[in-house]
Write a structure and sequence with these properties.
The chain is an alpha+beta fold. The chain is built from three helices and four strands, in the order αββααββ. It has a four-stranded antiparallel β-sheet, with helices on one face. Helix 1 packs across helix 3 and helix 2 crosses helix 3. The longest helix has 24 residues. The N and C termini lie close together (9 Å).
């Protein structure tokens, strides 16, 4: 089970970094910013199944408001073929991911 949870956390970061790469390629965000962001399982399930601080961690380096940055990332997120069915922006710039019904067991 721990292995599957780690895979889901890794996928959240990979999906977020891919969205960043797409946005940077389109000129929406600066390229080459290294981001050290965490992925957690929220205590309150109304905040999704997994959440990342990527936009909060990257905002200063990218000279963007964290919530605006989260919006750009969410718009460029490609969830097809992933564990997740949706990503939402919450609070100051969290990205909250919701697992598909086939993957509820990884929470």
């Amino acid at each position: 089970m721990i292995h599957m949870i780690q895979n889901a956390k890794n996928q959240v970061l990979a999906l977020t970094k891919e969205a960043y790469a797409r946005a940077a390629a389109e000129g929406l965000l600066p390229e080459g910013v290294e981001v050290n962001a965490g992925v957690e399982i929220p205590k309150d399930s109304s905040n999704g199944d997994y959440t990342t601080t990527f936009a909060l961690a990257a905002a200063k380096a990218m000279k963007k408001n964290p919530r605006e940055l989260a919006g750009i990332l969410a718009e460029k997120m490609e969830l097809t073929g992933s564990y997740f069915t949706s990503v939402e922006i919450a609070g100051p710039g969290f990205l909250n991911f919701t697992l598909g019904s086939n993957n509820i067991y990884i929470r």
